[in-house]
Amino acid sequence: MFSVVNYVWRLAGTGLAFACFFGGGLVLAISVFPAIALLCRDSAQRVRTTQNVIHHTFRCYVAILEVLGIIKLDVVGASVLQNGGGRLIIANHPTLLDVVILMSLIPRAQCIVKAELWRNRYLGGVVRWAGYIRNDLEPEALLAACKRAMGEGKDLIIFPEGTRTRPGEALQFRRGFANIALLAEAQIQLVTIDCRPIMLSKGDPWWKIPEKRSHFRVTVGDRLDATDGLGYQYRSLAARQLVRRLQAYFTEQLELG
Predict the structure, then answer these.
(1) From the CB of residue 144, how many other CB atoms can be counted at a distance below 10 Å?
(2) Is the pLDDT of residue 109 over 90?
(3) If one looks up domain 2-256 in CATH, what number appears?
């Protein structure tokens, strides 16, 4: 009986959380963020303020998810994310909440977002005011934007899979993140996200929740130099080696649990 009540509670809580996410996001998009854009005439200050609001909003949202009993979150090495800057944050991507959790942990987070968001009626202004990087830029412009963001002390979040991994499927990293890392000569911070039982994975509707509360474990792992020890003259070979290296790393971390 208790398990049924708990399930119904979490299902209702999940629906409420989604309503708060989209409803609250809409309120911010039509009120708070335009006010910031109006009051902050300096573009750098506007970006900092907007990103700071997003960071604290996501922190509150994750806290609400925990209070409602929808998720349990444990973070190993949180101070490393909070105290760093100017790194490439590489993480696996099992659930829809990954970016929300990471941005709640990283005070100065930068993202590469889909170009469609820039044309979105409600969110287009937000991603522009936040200074996020659109993914349809020419390669040279994209690299320059990434280097500039990390040079300003922002942590650039990239999911090398490009999309959420379906449960049971092996990790398949794309090479784009490796090219950015090598060309920008970035410091890479590895972050492993494990969610058990899985929720909000690729293809799942919001109402498909597990029988038990999902436990998210975020582990801040190794930090490495993108060009350290690769030993290849050509970038294409170095990029393949970096993809293989990190794919093996994340696979091992997830298998260890």
Answers:
(1) 15
(2) yes
(3) 3.40.1130
Domain extent listing, the chain = 2-256
Could you report the per-residue pLDDT of 43-72, keeping only the tens digit for each?
889 999 999 999 999 999 999 999 999 999
Q: What angle do CA 2, 7, 13 make, to 5 degrees?
A: 125
Mean pLDDT of all residues in 225-253? 83
Instruction: State how far the Cα of 26 lies from the Cα of 30, in Å rounded to an integer.
Output: 6
Distances, alpha carbon 18 to alpha carbons 74, 121, 151, 169, 209, in Å: 22, 19, 35, 27, 13
Q: What is the β-pairing status of strands 187-196 and 214-225?
A: antiparallel
Q: Is the pTM of this model over 0.90?
A: yes
Packed helices 43-67 and 98-105: angle between N→C axes, nearest 10 degrees: 120
Label residue 121 by pLDDT band (50, 70, 90). confident
Rounded to 10 degrees, the C-alpha dihedral 108/109/113/117 comes to -50
Tokens of 2: 């208790």
Q: Mean pLDDT throughout 81-99? A: 92
CA 53 to the chain's CA centroid:
16
